[in-house]
Task: inverse folding
């Protein structure tokens, strides 16, 4: 039996049991079982910040990586500096293979305006695939209520798309639970959240939301896109376009813990 198949079968048995665990218990299980072969993926949205703080209460040493598209807000880069100081960690920054200039040269200027799926694939999905290849498990801050693609997320599950264990310790949290945790523990967060940016990604594809809009309305405004591709099950990507027809696309996103 291959190592991946063994891991997948072990996880299938544990998955139901883990649904009753607290985020701290899930993280303790992850760190104990995978040590340096597990890392938290974060775009440093408020959910990610709660998760990093929870991890700091469980372990004095844990890995965090981020997909640095090189198109992030200055506020996000500034937050990374604060995180490194507060938690005594070094964030692993994962870059695309093409610089912004090389991408413009190869694919044309402002690719995100013409083909955001290709842009996300180049700057987020492919770099993530390479990063995950060095791990046995990854931890995300996705929540079931964020998008339809995340509604079936388990706290511990097998990631069929990337072929490793995926751990979602706050899958069952609400937005209120996240913010109440962040306020109670004085957790640092992105200043843009106070300026009507509930979900924060790249500068080119994120705007503030207006009164009455959905929390993710500011992401890829003008496109049917709601996900960057990191948390979209591969089977869903294959099936949904066939169900909804060619005019409505369910396409991948990123910051996507948060995404
Ligand atoms: S969010 Fe926008 S700018 Fe960032 S990688 Fe995706 S399409 Fe490109």
Result:
């Amino acid at each position: 039996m291959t190592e991946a198949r063994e891991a997948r079968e072990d996880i299938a048995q544990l998955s139901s049991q883990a649904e009753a665990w607290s985020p701290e218990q899930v993280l303790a299980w992850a760190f104990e079982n995978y040590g340096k072969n597990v890392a938290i993926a974060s775009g440093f949205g408020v959910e990610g910040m709660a998760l990093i703080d929870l991890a700091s209460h469980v372990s004095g040493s844990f890995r965090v990586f981020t997909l640095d598209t090189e198109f992030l807000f200055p506020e996000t880069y500034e937050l990374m500096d604060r995180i490194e100081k507060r938690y005594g960690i070094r964030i692993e920054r994962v870059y695309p293979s093409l610089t912004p200039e090389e991408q413009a040269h190869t694919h044309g200027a402002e690719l995100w305006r013409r083909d955001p799926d290709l842009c996300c694939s180049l700057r987020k999905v492919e770099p993530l695939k390479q990063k995950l290849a060095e791990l046995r498990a990854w931890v995300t801050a996705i929540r079931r209520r964020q998008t339809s693609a995340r509604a079936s997320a388990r706290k511990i599950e097998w990631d069929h798309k990337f072929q490793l264990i995926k751990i979602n310790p706050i899958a069952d949290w609400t937005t209120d639970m996240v913010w109440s945790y962040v306020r109670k523990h004085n957790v640092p967060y992105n200043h843009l959240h106070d300026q009507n940016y509930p979900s924060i990604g790249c500068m080119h594809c994120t705007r503030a939301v207006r009164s009455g809009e959905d929390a993710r309305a500011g992401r890829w405004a003008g496109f049917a896109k709601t996900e960057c591709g990191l948390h979209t099950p591969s089977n869903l990507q294959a099936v949904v376009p066939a169900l909804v027809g060619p005019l409505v696309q369910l396409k991948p996103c990123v910051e996507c813990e948060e995404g």
Residues 235-259 have pLDDT under 50 and may be disordered.
